């Protein structure tokens, strides 16, 4: 059965259509693999019975030749996406036992195309974190290990469950969200492909909010082609989301022509930051050489306000988080800790329900929005955000895509950075600017570190030009020829 879980999404889809395998066989293989991989803590809720039921319905449709684009394809869903009648807690104690009465638009699109729900995936609490250690359900363990070292590593965050599940072959593909790098960074840490679409390309309706002007759903997959297939199903206009863009959804898979001759690839000099590992820098140069050999033209560009991206992000994102999380008060749903009066009940519920990182960000956000500090911090950060977007716009006058590293280091050990929030926040130094500007970005596995851990390269594209981004990513993927996989130590 493990042979079935080796198939990537495109291969599985084609075999299902050709009736070489059934959706029930494929789903059962994943259900068994998930049970064997519980030490990774990737899933916070397994829905095996529902998955088999959905697979049976898929087989019936496939038999009639009425299958959708993802008919019978088993997926894992990040626990930030509301799933009707299936528990959704954003991995927070404050949402204990919450079962939505509605479906997020993105997951509704996936089910309409015939996908199968394997379960809900672990994430940092309310998506606040870079390592998947802030989850109320406990840390996710990266399937990868350093050579000759049994230290448990983080899978990246906040979508650590999503990236670990794809890397460990316990989901064919997964949904994820990216607020400051939470799709691309975990993909780089686990040797998977992570695609953050343009802001507004995928509906945020029914996705538990962290920072509304930054959050964007996207897929984590094994290949660039799989990411293109997933995005086609996930994307689309949604009148329920006022930030959703009413534009046709291209067939992203047809964009993977393998031809990037004449494509201009920008190399931003500001991404050569202090503290970046030498092996990351050398991989970046290798990526430049690969694209040049494929016929791309390499162009040096400048993004002068990049150095302000991280501080601006950590003002804007917590400010929006403090506003969004005000709805969790113990009155209507989730955890309630009774107090002497209603104000005391609010305080007791939030004190017990929110974890340390969420409290930290809510307090920072409330501070920067308070009287006397709003102009000094929040308004200034928004101005910097505009300058960052202008930097990208000027760079794209000279080039079509940008190539950068995805992360400054490979995956680190669980607990290594938990007591140092600033060091943790620096993990997002290469990914945050794209969120502030609303641009699409993708991380492609491109090599191994000296101690055998995966490293990713990032491409950042123009607004709503995911087709060019995916075309370049496909060529990068082919040149890198990354075939390494983690040893399945968790099955022992």
CATH homologous superfamily name? Amidase signature (AS) domain
Q: How does the major sheet shape up?
A: 11 strands, mixed
Mean pLDDT: 96
Number of helical runs?
A: 16
| Rounded Rg | 21 Å
Stretches where pLDDT is under 50 for at least 5 consecutive residues are none
Structural class: alpha/beta
Fill in the CATH topology: Amidase signature (AS) enzymes
Percent range for helical residues? 25-40%
| SSE series | HHHEHEHEHEHEEHEHEHHHHEHHEEH
Distance between the termini: 17 Å
Q: Indicate the proportion of strand residues.
A: 5-15%
Features:
492 residues, alpha/beta, Amidase signature (AS) enzymes, 37% helix
How is this fold's topology laid out?
Blueprint: H1 2-5, H2 9-17, H3 23-36, E1 43-46, H4 48-63, E2 74-78, H5 105-112, E3 116-121, H6 160-167, E4 173-178, H7 184-190, E5 193-196, E6 216-221, H8 224-234, E7 264-268, H9 278-293, E8 297-301, H10 309-324, H11 342-353, H12 356-369, H13 374-395, E9 401-405, H14 421-425, H15 432-437, E10 441-448, E11 454-461, H16 466-480
Parallel strand pairs: 2-3, 2-4, 7-8, 7-9
Antiparallel strand pairs: 1-3, 4-6, 5-6, 5-10, 9-11, 10-11
Helix pairs in contact: 3-4, 6-7, 8-16, 10-12, 10-13
Descriptive account of the structure:
This protein has 492 residues and is α/β, with parallel strands linked by helices. The protein has one domain (2-263, 398-491): Amidase signature (AS) domain (Amidase signature (AS) enzymes, Alpha-Beta Complex), CATH 3.90.1300.10. It is 37% helix and 13% strand. The protein contains 16 helices and eleven strands. Strands 1-3-2-4-6-5-10-11-9-7-8 form an eleven-stranded mixed beta sheet, sandwiched between helices. α5 links the parallel β2 (74-78) and β3 (116-121). α3 runs antiparallel to α4, α6 packs parallel to α7 and α10 (309-324) crosses α12 (356-369). The longest helix has 22 residues, at 374-395. It is globular, with a radius of gyration of 21 Å. The mean pLDDT is 96.
């Amino acid at each position: 059965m493990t042979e079935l879980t080796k198939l990537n999404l495109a291969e599985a889809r084609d075999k299902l259509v050709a009736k070489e395998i059934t959706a029930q066989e494929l789903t059962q293989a994943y259900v068994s693999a998930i049970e064997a991989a519980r030490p990774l803590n990737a899933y916070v809720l397994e829905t095996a019975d529902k998955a088999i039921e959905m697979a049976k319905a898929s087989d019936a449709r496939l038999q009639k030749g009425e299958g959708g684009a993802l008919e019978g394809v088993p997926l894992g869903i990040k626990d930030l996406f509301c799933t009707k009648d299936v528990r959704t807690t954003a991995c927070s104690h404050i949402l204990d036992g919450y079962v939505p009465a509605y479906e997020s638009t993105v997951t509704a699109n996936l089910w309409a195309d015939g996908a199968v729900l394997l379960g809900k995936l672990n994430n940092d609490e309310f998506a606040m974190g870079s390592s998947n250690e802030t989850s109320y359900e406990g840390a996710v363990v990266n399937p990868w290990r350093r050579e000759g070292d049994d230290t448990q590593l983080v899978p990246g965050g906040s979508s650590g469950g999503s990236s670990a599940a794809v890397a460990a072959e316990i989901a064919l593909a997964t949904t994820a969200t990216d607020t400051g790098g939470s799709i691309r960074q975990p993909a780089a840490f686990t040797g998977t492909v992570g695609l953050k679409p343009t802001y507004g390309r995928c509906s945020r309706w029914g996705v538990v909010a962290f920072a509304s002007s930054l959050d964007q759903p996207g897929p984590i997959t094994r290949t660039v082609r799989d990411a293109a297939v997933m995005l086609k199903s996930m994307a689309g206009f949604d009148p329920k989301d006022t930030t959703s863009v009413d534009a046709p959804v291209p067939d992203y898979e047809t964009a993977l022509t393998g031809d990037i001759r004449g494509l201009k690839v920008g190399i931003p000099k500001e991404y050569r930051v202090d503290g970046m590992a030498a092996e990351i820098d050398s991989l970046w140069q290798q990526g430049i050489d690969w694209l040049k050999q494929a016929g791309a033209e390499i162009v040096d560009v400048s993004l002068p306000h990049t150095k302000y991206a991280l501080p601006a992000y950590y003002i804007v994102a917590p400010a929006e988080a403090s506003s969004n999380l005000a709805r969790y008060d113990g009155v209507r749903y989730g955890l309630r800790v009774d107090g002497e009066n209603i104000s005391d009940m609010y305080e007791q519920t939030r004190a017990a329900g929110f974890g340390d990182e969420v409290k930290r960000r809510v307090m920072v956000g409330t501070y920067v929005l308070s009287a006397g500090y709003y102009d000094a911090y929040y308004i200034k950060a928004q101005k910097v955000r505009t300058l960052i977007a202008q930097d990208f716009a000027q760079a794209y006058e000279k080039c079509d895509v940008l190539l950068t590293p995805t992360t400054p280091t490979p995956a680190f050990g669980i607990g290594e950075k938990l007591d140092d929030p600033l060091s943790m926040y620096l993990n997002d130094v290469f990914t945050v600017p794209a969120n502030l500007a609303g641009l699409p970005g993708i991380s492609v596995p491109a090599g191994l570190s000296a101690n055998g851990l995966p490293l990713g390269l990032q491409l950042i594209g123009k607004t709503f030009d995911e087709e060019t981004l995916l075309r370049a990513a496909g060529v990068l993927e082919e040149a890198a020829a990354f075939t390494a996989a983690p040893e399945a130590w968790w099955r022992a």
